[in-house]
Description:
- By secondary structure, the chain is α+β, with helices and mostly antiparallel strands.
- The protein contains 13 helices and 34 strands.
- The strands form nine sheets. Strands 15-16-14-17-18-25-24-23 form an eight-stranded mixed sheet.
- Helix 8 crosses helix 11 (556-567).
- The longest helix is centred in the N-terminal third of the chain and has 36 residues, at 41-76.
- It is elongated and about 120 Å long.
- The two termini are 43 Å apart.
- 36% of the residues are buried.
Amino acid sequence: MPSFSFINTSYFLLMPLILLPVLIHLISQKNRKIIDYPSLKFIRAAYLKKARRLKINEILLLIVRTLITALLIFAFARMLMFLPDHAPAAGQKYAIIIDNSYSGAYTDISNQPAKYFDAIKTRAAEIISGAQNAPLFTICPASSPGGDSGFLTQPAALEYIKNMNYTCRIFSITDTVSALEKKEYYQDLAGVYAVSDFISAERGEEAKLNAYTDNNPALKKGPRFELINCGPENIIQARGNKNLSIISARVSDERVAAGKPLQIICKIKNHSLHNISSEVSLLSDGVKLASTAFGAGPGEICDAHINHVFMNSGEYALKLSLADDALAFDNAYNMVINPVSSLYVLILCQHDAADRENYIYKYVSAALNPLNSISIKDGLIIQPLIINLANNPPLDFKNFDAVIISGVKDASAELSAKLEKYVNDGGGVLFLPPEGPYLNSFSKTFSRLMPLDLSSATPVSSPDDKNYFNLCNINYDHDIFNIYKNKISGDIGRPKFYKIIPCGTRDKTASEVSVAADFENGIPALAERKIGRGISMIFTGYLDPAGSNISDSPLFVPFIHQIAYYINKNRRAGTRSYTIGETIRQTYGVNERISGVSTLKPDSAVESRLDIKTSSDGLYSEITDTFTPGFYTLFKKSDDKITKKLFAVNHDARESELISSDYEVFTSIFNRHSLLKSAAAVSQGVKSEKKTEVTPYLFLLILILMAIESYLTYLIKL
């Protein structure tokens, strides 16, 4: 029996017009008053006989006009008719969509260890073998939605299917169908077969497929689909197997110091229905560094903590690994960390060389590097460098881990712009304001960076040594102050400040500013602001002996160390991990003199050159084809050196889930748009269909009905 479909279904909104002939017919009916005359009773009998004939003609006319209206709507909606083709012509072309995402590697229930991908390949081979009259097949794998195998003969297609393997790309039936629909040969295909386990799909796939089929009427000009489900018959039963996956990992400290113990915290999910105890290992270049045991209940996410020490600084490519289970692809997690051994702090000041006493910066410098020796903070060597802006131009900050602006009186716009870029790229800066007369220009120059507005502020001094300001409302949970939680370590609220700067947060950035400590009356003392990937901080008290006694306190050195430790750009333990399919983007400064950028992918031994593009933010390059988990190496080539950087890419945990099957959802969507064949799923080979657009025949039928309508109208008028 034939089935029908429509290309432009929006014309069905005009279906209420079918009622128009009925309304006209009802309105045209007249209620006549009948008066009996004895002399006319024979004429009345003849009239009633004619009236019955007219009534029949009017009903026929109503039916014809209703049919004309309905057929016009069907014609504009582009009606298609599909008939079974029991003897297909030679060389018919078919497309087979193969789901080779890694969920197909999931093993079935324990007594049936076959993998779903084996069933997918077997079913696809049956479709190919069952076709008649030398057909041609194009294979569209999930690993390449925009690509295909080209048209292959039956033997070549069977060999292609046999050699297919898993990919780590998430299977999206929308992306694959969209790419196929754009092919020139799409309308000439005799059928499309989507063979999948339908275990999981891309996030929001249902809405994505719905929107695509609604907005692409051209999809209906091509063949119809058959969705063939090779997944588990019982999802709950499939979850009886052991299946763990690492869904994320992080380092406990934002910055890792060489020689200092670190802890890696990984989240592991148990996808099965049973309690599972196992072990997760930390590997580097295949060598096991550490491991820890864990346990997780059914459907539970647990934390596993691995402790290790990296004695040397550098860039480490690490892999977290689980024991094999029902799905091995999600048992590894890649990450990159960068332990550091030195912290280079740039102190920018501005003073007259003849003035050797009022060096506000020198107390900070002495705290960072006491007695001009190497200062060590938790295993991290701190090395400050002092630059006097009165004698030296603004610097490029990229080689420094933190910047301290100490008492700069007259800063240039060039310095402010360079500092802003440095902070946006992940650097940290601490502002120590100058004396009162210079506060206004200081605030205006660094207005885009500073957390607080000092433009209208005036320093306030205590009248004598008995009146002073203390730090209060201290956030002891903040990384800078947490070492002072225990009062045995010293009370950071005791140092006396004789001169402070009363000010408030900027209206535009108040929501972005946080205050770690105040002076009395709610005056911010230490405030910070997140800018891009970096941090800007300001301290509104003066640190020299004339402004406070904190520089004489044993708390001063750890206080300055904690600030430098907090704002340095190495506070992130390494580059963040990416998910397959996510674009890796790197930006470059113009002064880096980049001559070329290339990448080495984890599944390749050959470097690929990357284009250097321009944007409003500067130069950048992108790695877009990240569909293989592993480590991507980016080589940055400048005039004098080549530097490399590692990026970790991991699996997408959605393919590990066995929550529900998408088969019924996708079937419903395709059915609603009349894109599914009426026959059941393929059981023996290929069932071909003949597609015919009946629109020309509908217009011919409309012309015939219009002729009938004219004839009926003529009869009624007689």
